[in-house]
Amino acid sequence: MIRIATLLSCLYFLISFSLHAQPRPLYPILFEYSKDLYPEYKEIPEERRFKLEAVAEYIREKVEIGETPEIMFIGSNQATRSLLAQVWARAAAHYYGVDDVELYSGGIHEGPITTNTITAIERAGFIVYKIKEGGQLFYQVKYSFNLKPIVIYPKKIDDRLNPPADFMAVIVCQSAAQNLPVVKGTRKRLELTFNDPYGYEGLEEENEEYDKACHQIALEMFYLFSKLKHLES
Length: 233
Description:
By secondary structure, the protein is an alpha/beta fold. The protein contains seven helices and seven strands. The model is unreliable at 5-20 (pLDDT under 50).
């Protein structure tokens, strides 16, 4: 039984390595962070893997009929988790060669983006620029050379730059899951909630907890897009 388990474990890593082969470039620190995620895919709980695979299948189905899939990650205040999901999903899509997908985020409320959210992604290897225009604060998040940055800012679900209809809603916080049973305009709704690190603001553990949230979301977004490696329309 031990030998069988060892063989299965080796087989898993061989499959993972083949999925991982020849990824697209990211910034060096971010690339190393991302490269180290794939051995952890097997640690994602089965229930969550099914949900992530359901999102991947939605993307695949849309691409196969010649449509561009649109995914919106939704939280209550759009301060941390929905933004982390959007940023990591974009990096993962690029890494695995998935071009035909649009990724957004929004909140039930328009809350400020926490400084700890920005510093967590910077520690992971993203490069972030803060820009203020017309009294509005924006962040440009860069993840690879010669690519347009991801632009994030506090916004509601119905923000003018978010899709008004025909998108998949991925609910990333428990409060939004409870208070938003129906998302207007969505084609599909899925709950994939993450723990909120905000409760650790100002405490000694705040960096550690934000890094944990950042890591879990990175891991699951990379797992999701590994299921779509080099997807072509």
